[in-house]
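Practice set, problem 2.
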Amino acid sequence: MANHNINLLLCLFALSCCALAFEPSPMQDFCVADKTSSALVNGMVCKDPKLAQDNDFFFTGLHVPGNTSNSQGSKVTPVNVAQIPGLNTLGISLVRIDYAPWGINPPHTHPRATEILTVLEGTLHVGFVTSNPDNRLITKVLQKGDVFVFPVGLVHFQRNVGYGNAVAIAALSSQNPGVITIANAVFGSNPPIGAEVLTKAFQVDRNIVEYLQAKF
């Protein structure tokens, strides 16, 4: 009887392994995004590979400096599946980030990607915050040629601490990494988060919350 039970458990284990198995890699050479499709999938629908063209895998303009004349003093130029349909399912994208002197890329997260950033010009103060309960700030000042990693989902930022312009290129481990800017999400949601919630969460006067919500 004992042997019968052991054999049954082994069979169930084998079946569960088979049920959990999956193929993490693409099952074809590429899956060019079909932006005309209305089908809802986790990603974008593939168009007929016979219709793929060179421009499906191409983007130009990353050499052009971004316009940093805004309140943050920075400009992010993305190159993801929205710009290169051929990135669909390939799990990679990149951005160019331009910073005016003392400009910032404000605290934000990428819910679907780890980011690895390389400084091309200037000096950047960068950092990320670990998850609860520690919320430890890990930070460093980067020079030209330095590389820094921001783990997936963690709040992070960059600040130009030099007197000249700064430029960085960042690669991300998703064709559509997403971005959640913390201040915009908290104070600029649509519809707004109730002021009574934010007042208690941040332990500040309601007038301060309403002032911040008005700015976003």
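Problem 2, part (b): a different protein.
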Amino acid sequence: MTDAAIRTERLTKRFGRVTALEGLDLEVPRGEVFGFLGPNGAGKSTTIRLLLNLIRPTSGQAWIMGVPVGDVRAAHRRLGYVPGDVSLWPQLTGMEILTYLGRLSGRVDTAYRDELIERLRLDPGLRARSYSKGNRQKVALVAAFMTRPDVLLLDEPTAGLDPLMEAEFQALTREAAAQGQTVFLSSHILDEVEDVCERVAILRDGRLVEVATLADLRGLGSTVYDAAFDGPAPDLSAVPGVTSVEPLADGVRVTVSGSPVPLLERLTGAGLTRLRSHEPSLEEIFMAYYETPAAREAGPAARLDGQGGR
């Protein structure tokens, strides 16, 4: 058994004929902020439910801090969990809910709880039925962080939060990792993952297709070029090495794998007025794993639509 905070071994879940997760082998060390990425149906939330033992695996095993997830009492003592869609007792106030959840856990840092309430700008005296989605999310975040658990399982944790509170969440996440806590962050907000995560896993159709640091992902050989022209942009789709072409207001954004020489030769004779290169963002890397001809035609906004699911 390793010293991992989260470990899975051939973890599989099928619902009838549908395979939601297939043979997941994953290891997340203690003190890491780990990103878990994938669109609807990729298996993200299924994985988290398996780690929480809310559903049972078809096969395979999982451990939290070395404890089998099937040992619910022992495993849940080490966990904090924030779902993407929070339901609260409508007749209770925020503080009554936090007090109740704190008693269930048996270990609350009350000074830290009060600090969290202040930093997230939560009014704990209001009844839950009056809370907006963002405020319900704040209650869940306070409840998860206030116990200072070894592992935080966060499934779309910033749903409904405004940008200021998203920044505060990121600060809390970094602080937790600095204190040795492990953060498992499932999110469709790629900028958020890029800002706080050290490594990411990418799921596709229930299978793990990549686990790497952001630096390693960017070093896989792709470069992004933004090219502007004094006339119509040329057709670059058939140029060797070009993996994607997206329209811009005054030109195109081209992703190239390998040598850029064929692309640069094509651009030179096409009325090029400006060329800028940069490393691919996490969003561009992520989309490379999901790119299809139909998706390319739809454009990046359509490809990202609905990317917050299971």
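Answer key, part (b): The longest strand covers residues 4-15. Residues 292-310 have pLDDT under 50 and may be disordered.
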